[in-house]
Amino acid sequence: MHIPLIVVVVVITALVMDFTCGFHECSDAVATSVATGAFRPLVAVGVAAVGNLIGALLSTKIALTISNGIVDDTKITPTVIFAGLVAVIIWNLVTWVVGLPSSTTHALYGGLIGATVVAVGMGGVHFAKVASTFLIPAIAAPVIAGIVTLIGTRISYRMTRGASDRVATRAYRAGQMVSASMMSLAHGSNDGQKTMGVITLALVTSHLLPHNSHPPLWVILSAAVGIGAGTFFGGWRIIRTVGKRLTDLRSPQGFVAESASTAVVLASGHLGLALSTTHVSGGAVIGSGLGRRGAAVRWSVAGRLLLTWLVTVPAAAIVAGIAVPVASAGAVGTGVVAAITVAVGIVTYLLSRRNPVNSGNVNDVPAVQPAGTQETAPA
Q1: Contacts of 133 (CB under 8 A, 6+ apart)
Q2: Closest CA to 216 of 238, 201, 231, 236
Q3: Quick check: pTM over 0.85?
Q4: DSSP state of 275
Q5: Cα separation of 114 and 142, whole Å?
Q6: pLDDT 10s digit of each residue in the chain, 379 long?
Q7: H helices of 26-135, where?
Q8: Using CA atoms, how far apart are residues 273 and 63, in angstroms rounded to an integer?
Q9: Are 108 and 88 a contacting pair, CB within 8 Å?
Q10: CA nearest neighbour of 256 among 190, 192, 168
Q11: Which helix (H) or strand (E) holds 301?
């Protein structure tokens, strides 16, 4: 069987995206447990990596949503998919270096939609499907996670009102070992499938697989390994933002936030909804801050997160829309787009070395600043 070079390029690019998703969004699974001290940082990313890998093997419902629900696979080519993936990688790298937890899911939707519209027009996008599987969940999921966590946090503190702080903290930290592990599993199940769906879509558009195909086993395994490997490297900059900058997290809050996030993400996966685990975990952390008396939600940070969430889809769509005509110029055009992507990766890495955040200093920031003080941008 002859496999076109562009398909090989798309598969490699999709796995690179999968890796960036792992280190960019491992904060979804580990930020709360690292912030509360339930896990040491390196142990946390190790547990999350294993959970991601196993979780990605559990289902393919979301993969089918990506491969069959967003764009018309009879109208697009692998080049369109390549442009969309490049947009996701660039967006993940840029937001990582400034420590902002954007959504790989939203970037992927934006990238595929932007590239498709430029390449074949509005008719190439299934907008009704996008609304039902993406837009509505994107709005509802973080709100639901936040409300559930707010209520759960208040209940948890009432339940332990008569216990000493030391006993309660020890008990909830033990609980977090389970809840954080389950969130890692849910994260892998949700986000790993998106890479499977994209690779499957590329194989379908190249007529290497029939329409409505499930991801082949090699696609499932490679996507699982990719997201697990990325998670193991730890997106420490974003872990710091979620775990230490949004609010002052304590063990009861962390346990409830992780449990609520896990429930929402797993429920969405069962329904085949390509949910943003970043938005869910962010909403849960904010809810935990609102649920504990004396905790302060840092709304300036929350506002920057919300702004990032709002601009992710259009930003990725614009980048993909610019990339697709260049990549469509043949091997040279594809090479130019790939080279630009590599250059962005190098630049963001060099910028990150100016103010490194790692497992040793990820918690070395004040949890809540005194009122009236000037807040610096997230690392």
Answers
A1: 65, 69, 272, 273, 274
A2: 201
A3: yes
A4: -
A5: 25
A6: 678 899 999 999 999 999 998 888 877 778 888 888 888 888 988 988 898 889 888 888 888 888 887 899 899 999 999 999 999 999 999 999 988 888 898 999 999 999 999 999 999 999 988 888 888 888 888 999 999 999 999 998 888 887 777 888 888 888 988 998 898 888 888 888 889 999 999 999 999 999 888 899 999 999 999 999 988 887 888 888 887 887 888 888 889 999 999 999 888 877 777 778 888 888 998 998 888 887 778 888 888 888 998 999 999 999 999 999 999 999 999 999 999 999 999 999 999 999 888 888 888 864 444 433 333 333 3
A7: 27-36, 41-55, 61-69, 78-97, 104-120, 127-130
A8: 10
A9: yes
A10: 168
A11: helix 299-327
Q: Assign 76 to helix, strand or coil.
A: coil
Place of tokens 């699982």: 224
Tokens of 298: 């840092």
- From CA 301, how far away is CA 248, in angstroms rounded? 13
Angle at 78 between CA 72 and CA 82, to 5 degrees: 110
Distance CA 360, CA 61 (A): 38
Tokens 């809050």 identify what position?
253
Cα–Cα–Cα angle for 149, 150, 155, rounded to 5 degrees: 90
Joined tokens for residue 40: 């040491």
Give the pair of three-digit tokens for residue 278.
Answer: 């970043």
Distance, CA of 274 to CA of 190 (rounded, Å)? 7
